[in-house]
Design brief:
heterodimer, A: mainly beta, Immunoglobulin-like, nine-stranded mixed beta sheet, B: alpha+beta, FAD/NAD(P)-binding domain, Flavocytochrome C3, Chain A, domain 1, 2 domains, four-stranded antiparallel beta sheet
């Protein structure tokens, strides 16, 4: 880049080149902040500190100004400057302009640089939790649904919809005002639902298409499932005890077909089920119990012996046991 | 100034010409017809000299130093770390040595060298079928003597005897050392790293015998008379940015802990082992492969390479602690460890893999999470669809929810987790967006992760994992917040390395001894026994042979 000559007095004008030390992402969420840091360089290494760089929107309005405040290695830089991306979704152009100036008695030409940024709607996403399973056909149950925005917008009062497999809306609820514990902005609510009358696997979808917010938001959806079962006809009591000692095993997870329970301090877990044949599994870390099939035709009490698994040798990998720790021979 | 301390000592061409290579292996250089003028040592300024220079103050190096001292050799040992111990100081201290030694006799354990040989040459197990039987024979014959050597050097053992160590006969052949008694001299306090008792006792004994240990000296070169011929004369090490040349009158031992930490080198054996994988003893022991690389640079050969990829032993394992960069087995770097600043997090120890699912960098499950076999590892390292990364499987993440945190009694915050290797989110999509990790080259698609979890939750509801047959999937992942914790597999053993003869002398690519160069431990090839037994026997044998070798005089 060569110097230009001023017509009036014949003085030479130094060119200036602008670059972005800190550039915005090509896409940003609508209405969020854009951060820039601008570098201005004169090929002669002139110190331009004190000059003002403007960021100009397409309508000629200056959205932010920043002073060239740093000089080193022959280049000048601003501090970080911040301005807001438009609330509307779309492509936006700004011009970074350093007006012509005189520094140290030397003339410097105007310099400019364009910035293109696309603004996008805020992404929303959902969580669905505390979904009970199984649920007796035709019975009501409750779940929790939460929604959050990628920027953390307040979603208080926004509506979520629950739909069945045919996309028919089966429930509506408004998100409440306090975010779920441990999250920045998961707005949530409790939703009451009724299980379908047919037995078996059921699924529901949650839809969230927030309206009435200042900034544009994308819709979100999620899916959850549960099993529906006939009303219980009898009770199965499972008593879990440690083999050899008979000590009750508490906090063991019991699975009887699609039913779940947890053993209490007496090692007991009770599950109400309709007549049928079920696979019984008991799981607890550090224990082992054999699976079995139960044919349930009346109230039933079952004893389960749980064998303690010896603590794993911490140096097991250090040993060469021909029968273990290998997957192939 | 000790007998071996000397100032800069240029080995001039004239002096080299008049040097006397008296006999034995040192004579090979002359026999090979080398002109001394070609010797790479000419013109070097030797900063220090000893009979034996040991590179690496780990288990094999310490055994070598002690053994060489035992036969009257002077020893200088260099170590790149700020302290001694290498991988040994991080180990549980289980030493697999048998053959009928005194402790076995005390326990009434029947064992013999022949039984060890039989175990480690078995054809029906991949850990032993590829062994070099000459190496195993010597190893077996020297087991008992090496155990007595440890006792003589003050190593103390607990009263426990366990089967293992390759004992198909189930003979007691594993003995645990007593943990070092000074907490401030441990690298991993509170975690039963009894290997500290082994290396500290050997260090103590070595220092008493006059072995000089130079810390923060990193070997950069092995000096040979000429690049691919002649005798090894010493090594160059980098210390505080300066080169230090160490001359060895009898031999150089290189034992730098294997090559698991050298991405380029380890991929010699398995191209999948790209940069993202954890290392068992990092961030303390680098497992740099320096011994292998520098030895190969002067002509050394690898040996029994099938041992590295036999899918037996612990060449690569599932992680035990998640949410930290280094999550190996029983090894936890607590906040009062001298290297906690490097480890940055203790990790979350997984008690029950039912509590998590594991996904690859694209957010997809890849295997039954309860499995820890090589099948799991292979699935974790499978191509995951990234056209810019064809080798390696990329990061693996454990995904779990708030309920799992309660069940596992985790506190998913620093210092238990490392923010670079851990993420949380209010939803699964937010979680995916929050995964920022140097090895996660592409963002995890949130929609894919959500779909993966929804599908997995349906398996929990039905009780059947139709994708990967995880037995009885127990817990849905549904309650926010959600978490992603680094769970990428861990590289552990170097199961093979440099070719050696039965005296631990390194062999070159033409099958000839490289005079004056020894190796052992995980830098050697031919025997894939994990850890301390192999390290100790090989280090001791090298020290004895080098220590008894004739000196080069100049």
């Amino acid at each position: 880049m060569s110097d230009r000559v001023e017509r009036g007095d014949g003085r030479r004008i130094h060119p200036v080149h602008l670059t972005l030390v800190l550039a915005p992402e090509p896409e940003v969420d609508a209405g969020t902040n854009i951060v820039l840091k601008i570098r201005a360089g004169c090929p002669h290494g002139c110190d331009l500190r004190g000059e003002i760089v403007n960021v100009v929107a397409s309508g000629s309005a200056v959205v932010v100004s920043a002073q060239l405040s740093q000089f080193g290695g022959g280049v000048n830089e601003t501090d970080e400057c911040v301005f807001g991306a438009p609330d509307e979704v779309g492509d936006h152009v700004w011009m970074v302009v350093l007006p012509a100036c005189e520094a140290g008695g030397l003339l410097h030409d105007e310099a400019s640089l364009s910035i293109l940024v696309k603004t996008r709607p805020h992404e929303t996403s959902l969580a669905v939790w505390d979904v009970p399973t199984p649920v007796v056909v035709g019975h009501s149950f409750r779940i929790h649904v939460g929604a959050t925005c990628s920027v953390g917008c307040d979603l208080n009062g926004r509506e979520i919809l629950i739909c069945d497999e045919s996309s028919a809306i089966v429930a509506r609820a408004a998100l409440a005002g306090t975010p779920w514990e441990g999250t920045r902005a998961l707005y949530w609510t409790t939703v009451n639902l009724t299980a379908p009358w047919n037995e078996g696997a059921a699924s529901r979808s949650v839809r969230f298409a927030p309206t009435g917010l200042r900034l544009p938001h994308d819709a979100a959806s999620a899916r959850f499932g549960f099993e529906t079962v006939r009303p219980p006809q009898c009770s199965v009591t499972i008593k879990i005890a440690q083999k050899d000692t008979g000590t009750p095993v508490d906090d063991a997870q019991v699975r009887l077909g699609v039913y779940f329970a947890c053993s209490d301090s007496s090692g007991l877990a009770r599950i109400a089920v309709p007549y049928g044949t079920y696979s019984l599994d008991v799981l607890k870390t550090g224990y082992e119990a054999a699976s079995r099939l139960l044919d349930v035709r009346s109230d039933l009490a079952v004893d389960v012996e749980a064998t303690v698994i010896p603590p794993e040798n911490p140096d097991a990998y250090w040993l060469f046991d021909p029968d273990k720790k290998t997957s192939s021979t | 100034m000790s007998k071996d301390e000397e100032g800069p000592n240029p080995v001039s061409r004239r002096r080299f010409l008049t040097s006397t290579v008296t006999q034995g292996t040192a004579g090979l250089a002359m026999a090979a017809g080398l002109r001394p003028a070609e010797a790479e040592g000419a013109g070097l300024k030797w900063d220090r000299t000893a009979d034996v220079v040991v590179v690496g103050a780990g288990v094999s190096g310490l055994a070598c130093a002690c053994a060489a001292s035992d036969v009257g050799a002077s020893v200088i040992m260099i170590e790149e770390n700020f302290d001694i111990g290498g991988r040994g100081i991080m180990s549980g201290g289980s030493i697999q040595l048998g053959g009928g030694h005194s402790l076995q006799k005390k326990y009434g354990t029947v064992d013999s060298a022949d039984m060890i040989f039989a175990d480690w040459t078995r054809h029906d197990h991949p850990a032993s079928r590829y062994s070099d039987r000459d190496i195993v024979r010597k190893f077996a014959d020297e087991n008992a003597a090496t155990f007595e050597f440890l006792l003589a050097h003050g190593v103390q053992f607990t009263g426990r005897e366990e089967p293992g160590g390759g004992a198909s006969t189930n003979a007691g052949r594993t003995y645990q050392t007593v943990e070092w008694h000074i907490p401030s001299q441990l690298v991993a306090p509170h975690r039963g790293r009894n290997g500290s008792g082994l290396v500290r006792r050997l260090e103590e004994s070595a220092r008493k015998a006059g072995v000089e240990i130079l810390l923060k000296h990193s070997m950069t070169k092995i000096i040979r008379e000429s690049p691919l011929a002649g005798r090894v004369l010493g090594v160059t090490a980098k210390h505080m940015g300066k080169d230090v040349n160490l001359r060895a009158r009898k031999g150089v031992f290189v034992g730098t802990g294997g090559n698991s930490g050298n991405v380029n080198f380890r991929r010699t054996f398995d191209p999948r082992l790209t940069e993202e994988y954890q290392q068992a003893c990092a961030p303390y022991a680098r497992q740099s492969g320096d011994a292998e690389v520098q030895s190969m640079a002067i002509g050394a050969s690898l040996w029994s390479t099938a041992l590295q990829t036999s899918q037996s032993g612990a060449a690569i394992t599932k992680t035990a602690h998640i949410g930290c960069q280094w999550g190996y087995g029983q090894l936890v770097i607590e906040t009062d460890s001298p290297i906690f600043n490097l480890a940055r997090a203790t990790g979350l120890t997984v008690a029950n893999w039912q509590d998590v699912i594991m996904v690859n960098q694209t957010g997809r499950r890849f295997w039954n999470e309860l499995d820890g076999s090589y099948n799991f590892i292979a699935a974790a390292m499978a191509y995951c669809g990234d056209p810019d990364k064809l080798n390696g499987g990329g990061p693996i993440w454990a995904i779990f929810d708030a309920d799992a945190v309660v069940r596992e009694r985790w506190n998913p915050k620093p210092p238990n987790v490392d923010p670079l290797y851990f993420a949380s989110g209010a939803t699964l999509k937010e979680l995916a967006a929050n995964i920022k990790n140097p090895y996660q080259k592409r963002p995890m698609p949130g929609a894919v992760l959500q779909e993966t979890v929804e599908r997995y939750n349906s398996f929990v509801t039905s009780g059947v994992d139709t994708d990967f047959k995880k037995p009885k999937p127990m817990y849905k992942i549904e309650k926010p917040p959600f978490y992603a914790a680094w769970s990428t597999p861990i590289l552990h053993d170097s199961l093979t390395g440099l070719r050696v003869n039965t005296d631990q002398q390194v062999i070159d690519i033409f099958g000839k001894v490289i005079p004056g160069l020894y190796t052992g431990g995980e830098s050697m090839g031919g025997l894939a026994q994990h850890g301390l037994g192999r390290d100790l026997v090989s280090g001791r044998l090298a020290g004895l042979h080098a220590g008894k070798s004739p000196s080069i005089t100049v």
